[in-house]
Amino acid sequence: MYYLIFSLIVLLAGTLGSLAGIGGGVIIRPALDAFNYYDNANVANFLSSFCVLAVALTSVIKSIVTKQKIDNYKASIFLGVGSIIGGIAGNFLFDLVKTYSNKNWLIIIQSIVLILLLVFVIFYMLFLKKKGVSLKIENWLLIIIIGLVLGIISSFLGIGGGPINVAILCFFFSMNMKQAAINSLIVIIFSQTSKIITTLINGSLLASSTNMDWYMLLCLIPVAIIGSLLGSFINKKVNDKVILYVYIITIFVIIGINAYNIVINSIALSW
Predict the structure, then answer these.
(1) 97, burial (CB in 10 Å: exposed 0-12, middle 13-18, buried 19+)
(2) 31-52 as b/e: b if 16+ CB within 10 A
(3) C-alpha angle 24/29/33, rounded to 5°?
(4) pTM score
(5) Are 9 and 31 in contact (CB under 8 A)?
(6) Residue 210 and residue 194: Cα distance in Å, rounded?
(7) What string of H, E and C letters represents the secondary structure of 184-205?
(8) Confidence class of residue 144 from pLDDT cuts 50, 70 and 90?
(9) How big is the CA angle at 188 (ends 49 and 75), to the nearest 5 degrees?
(10) Beta strands, E only, the chain
(11) Are 250 and 27 in contact (CB under 8 A)?
(12) Where are the domains of the chain?
C-alpha cells in the first residue's frame, strides 16, 4: 500500500518539480515524514535526494537533447560548484543535528527552517518580483558563495532546494520563471549528487540499524522520471504566469504539510 502511495506522491512531485523547477524534494521529504513510515531519518532523506536527482537529470537531459535554449546556464554551473561544497557541509550539519537530537526534534527543526524560508520566498515572488526588484550578478566568486549557501540549505533539509533556487535565480540573475525553472534543476543536479555521494561514503545507509529500503528506491526512480518528463512537456505548453501560479500554490501546500509535521512531532515528544 505504501509503495503505491509514495509512488503517487513522487509522480506528483516529479511533475511539479520539473514544471516549476522545484525539483520535488520539497514535497517528497515532508510527505515521507508525515506518513512516519521510516524510523530512521537517513532513509527518507536519501530516498528524497535520489528522486530529486532523477527528476533534475531527466529534465535537463531532455532539454539538451531537444535543443531547448538554456539562458544564463554558466551562472547555474557556478552556483552548482558552490552547492557541491555546500552539500557536503549541509550533510555534516544534518548528521550533527541528528546525533544530538531524536527523529522528532530533527523533523521539527527542518520543518521550521523550511517554513521560514518559504515565507520569504513567497513574499519576494508575490510582491517584490512584480515591482522589478532584482539584480544581475556576474562575479563568479559571489555566485559560488551563493551556491554554497544553497547547497547547505538543500542538503540539510533533504529537499533539493528547488523553490529557494528559483527565487534566488529570479532575484540575483533577473531570470523569468521558465529560465529559473530549468536553471534551478541544473543547480539541483550538483547539490544532490554531492549529497548522495557523501551519504554513501560515510556508510550510514549500510549500517544494519538504518534498514535502508532499496526496493522502495528502485520503485520510485522510474516514477520520478515519468513525472519529470510529464512536467517538462507541460512546461513547454504554458506561459510564465501559469508556472508562477503552480509554484506559489505548491509552496502553500508544502507549508501546510510542514506545519502538520511540526504539530504531530510536537505531540509525539509530549507523550
Answers:
(1) middle
(2) bbbbeeebebbbbbbbbbbbbb
(3) 150
(4) 0.86
(5) yes
(6) 20
(7) HHHHHHHHHHHHHHHHHHHCHH
(8) very high
(9) 165
(10) none
(11) yes
(12) 2-270
What is the spatial distance between Cα 151 and Cα 88, in angstroms, rounded to a whole number? 8
Whether 182 contacts 60, CB under 8 Å = yes
Place of cell 515524514: 33
The reported pLDDT for the residue numbered 208 is 47
**Rounded distance between C-alpha atoms, residue 47 and residue 215, angstroms:** 11
pLDDT tens-digit readout, 46-104: 888 899 999 999 999 998 898 888 888 888 899 999 989 888 888 888 888 888 888 88
Which residue is listed with cell 517584490? 128
Q: Which three cell numbers stand for residue 14?
A: 516529479
Query: To which residue does cell 516514477 refer?
Result: 223
d(CA 119, CA 134): 18
